[in-house]
Amino acid sequence: MNTEEAYKYIAQELVERADSLPWASLVGETIVYNNGLSSECWAVTAAGRAQTRIAASPTVSKNASDAAFFLRDDLLKTTGHLCYGFTFTLFEDGKFDIQYRYDNPYKELEEKMAAEQRG
């Protein structure tokens, strides 16, 4: 897989999850854990934000998941920075924007656990 393919797979999942919703843009927020993902997707329509289907087909979902792990690993390899997720926005003209998340979603939990261990 390469970066272009990864973006394509993520866009395909957003489009499939939008189903028949009319949309100006589709947004997917993904958090990448060590061995899993969590994601939320929605459409931006003329009326505002609309929830998309819960999931795409298994093949499309698997490709998008593999793409998310690829992007995380590739960014670490090429930049030395660990990406904890991203927000991918696809516009109706086919252009897209991706914002990577470098803040650690586990930080607050890790600090709480460390404080409890210290007593």
Helix content: 40-55%
Gyration radius, rounded: 16 Å
CATH topology: Murine Class I Major Histocompatibility Complex, H2-DB, Chain A, domain 1
**Residue runs with pLDDT of under 50 for 5 or more positions:** none
What is the name of the CATH architecture?
2-Layer Sandwich
Task: Tell me the span between the first and last alpha carbons.
Answer: 47 Å
Number of domains: 1
Largest sheet: 5 strands, antiparallel
Class inferred from helices and paired strands: alpha+beta
The CATH homologous superfamily: BH3703-like domains
- Mean pLDDT, to the nearest integer, reads 90
**CATH class placement:** Alpha Beta
Indicate the overall shape.
globular
Order of SSEs: HEEEHEEH
Strand order of the largest sheet: 3-2-1-4-5
In percent terms, what proportion of residues is strand?
Answer: 25-35%
Q: How many DSSP H or I helices? A: 3
